[in-house]
Design a protein that fits this description.
By secondary structure, this protein is mostly helical. The chain has a domain of about 80 residues. About 80% of the residues lie in helices and about 0% in strands. It is built from nine helices and no strands. The protein is elongated.
Length: about 160
């Protein structure tokens, strides 16, 4: 119980130290307020914390998203969705190596899924690591066959000279 109270206080402290989304469009600010209220009432709601981080990320506040995700991982170290959101925040901050590390952890912990393999392939491609990028695209293609994935595969094969 004491840990939950401390985590809620930490979430409120993070919120008070960040500019918030008040300058954003009113629906976004209202959604943030509802999520913060839900977090405060529930004593640390992981789903609400993840939704708040995602809201920050979509509104262009990658640093704020990372702060929210720190609280999320403190509440639930096994919150796998937090890893993908952290990777997306790192990409928004132009930190592809950090994004790759998060995606590697996610894939190790969960086995990965098509979206995570696709995102990881994109990061690897930006780092010009063709072979592992191709392996991720092929892993994604095992469960999801889209035109974009086939184009990515062709692009990677061309990049490595095939």
């Amino acid at each position: 119980m004491r840990t939950r109270v401390l985590l809620v206080l930490l979430a409120l402290l993070v919120a008070s130290g960040s500019p918030g989304l008040a300058a954003a469009d009113p629906p976004t600010a209202q959604r943030e307020a509802r999520l913060r209220d839900r977090i405060a009432r529930a004593g640390g709601d992981v789903d609400a914390q993840l939704a708040l981080a995602e809201l920050r990320l979509r509104s262009g506040d990658a640093e704020g998203a990372l702060r929210e995700l720190e609280v999320t991982t403190a509440l639930s170290p096994s919150a796998h969705r937090a890893r993908v959101l952290r990777a997306q925040a790192f990409l928004a901050l132009r930190r592809p190596e950090d994004a790759l590390a998060e995606l590697d952890r996610y894939v190790r912990q969960t086995g990965g899924d098509a979206p995570s393999h696709t995102l990881r392939a994109s990061v690897l491609e930006s780092l010009e690591r063709w072979e592992p990028a191709l392996a991720d695209v092929e892993a994604a293609l095992e469960t999801e066959s889209t035109v974009d994935l086939h184009l990515a595969r062709a692009r990677l094969l061309a990049a490595r000279g095939e």
